[in-house]
Design brief:
Blueprint: E1 2-12, H1 14-19, E2 25-28, E3 40-49, H2 54-61, H3 67-77, E4 84-96, H4 103-113, E5 122-137, E6 144-150
Parallel strand pairs: 1-3
Antiparallel strand pairs: 1-6, 2-5, 3-4, 4-5
InterPro entries: EOLA1/EOLA2 (IPR033615), PUA-like_sf (IPR015947)
Protein name: ASCH domain-containing protein
Length: 163
């Protein structure tokens, strides 16, 4: 028995940040996840890392994480390695972030996205992150693709506020 769900490949460290509940807004230059609202999405961890280290500074400065907390979070995100479907999230609404968002709201959105400069990007709410019980090895694909996940790999409870 298995479930078939849509899947999205995400580079590290962002895939781990999503599945550990730190990143709850996915950002894209187009409304890729808009049709996924109220659906479950599988998260595939790409082989490549996100280019640059700005995310590390962001976690320390905007999320008030100590260096050791950032390292623990990164280690947790690597628990299954790369090239795997590692977890599931629930997809919420998608909207275009305007350039005139009030500064306080912009900071909240940036913290949820673990990224700055969100104006004119499509933001999608992600919730109820949960790691599979073990990794499902799979080649990644561009955009959204379909994957069959054996039912015994699907966790019963979402992760809540791990970090």
């Amino acid at each position: 028995m298995s479930i078939e769900v849509s899947c999205l490949s995400i580079r590290q460290p962002y895939a781990g940040l999503v599945l550990n509940g730190v990143k709850s807004l996915e950002t894209r230059s187009r409304p890729l996840l808009a049709q996924m609202q109220n659906c479950t999405l599988a998260i595939h961890i790409e082989q490549k890392d996100w280019e640059g280290e700005e995310w590390r500074d962001f976690l320390r400065e905007h999320c008030a994480m100590r260096r050791c907390e950032v390292e623990e979070l990164l280690e947790s995100g690597e628990r299954f390695g790369r090239g795997v479907v590692a977890g599931l999230v629930d997809v919420g609404e998608t909207w275009l972030c305007s350039e005139d968002v009030p500064p306080e709201q912009a900071r909240e959105l940036e913290k949820a996205a673990c990224l700055t400069g969100l104006a004119q990007k499509y933001l999608t709410r992600l919730s109820s992150p949960r790691w599979l019980t073990e990794p499902l090895y799979s080649r990644g694909h561009k955009d959204i693709w379909m994957i069959r996940i054996p039912a015994h790999l699907v966790p019963s409870d979402p992760v809540v506020g791990l970090f």
